[in-house]
Amino acid sequence: MIVNSIVLFFSALLGGLYALRVTKTKESQVKTVLVFAGSFLFSITVVHILPELFETHKNQFHIGLYILGGFFFQQILEYFTSGVEHGHMHVHNHGKAHAPWSGISLMAALCVHAFLEGTILAHPGVIHDGHSQGGLLTGVVLHKVPAALALMTVLSCHYEKRQTQLILLFIFALASPLGVVAGHVISPMGIFSEDGMVMLFAFVAGNFLHISTTIFIESSPEHRWNSKKLIISLLGAALAIAAETFY
Question: 20 to 30 Å CA-CA from 112: which of 59, 85, 143, 186?
């Protein structure tokens, strides 16, 4: 729990701080990282999370429903985040980018998303039995670094004070570790049954599927053949398979 929390915190914090130091980060460079991260996250979800979810729970139909619920819940969150969690660096509020409520809603939605990410790393005994979480943790970290970078780029449009930007980055960096801690706390307290935790993880798996597939779609908006994207995607998938095989 402690190691996962520390890694998640610093991956988001350092990604955001990098954005503050490099003020002219090109979105194309972030997209290259995102394609790799999206491929890794999608692959680790397919080869690790989903098989164990369906194997763990007898009612596979319910698992499928929760995966769908997580998928569409992520779509709702993106109404408030404008896609920052998968690397969007532009604010799409049509002239209202500097309205205070827009920055608050952005942070609230991103923290909900990050908190849910953390919960899936909380209980190796529920869906990770016999498997290391290293591959899954790597996938979340690869996703969080460019997300934090994009977040700070967008926050600079909402808030001029550097102190405010840093405070919000710190809050965002804490969200996933708090999810890890909450996951470890609520199960022993009996708030969620083991089946309830499995359904929660299925919900988060739906989030992952939405984010990773959206990255693929938006990396080629004109649907043109891109050999570089294909190679990077295959490398991401290969690393995910290797992490699942050898961790």
Answer: 59
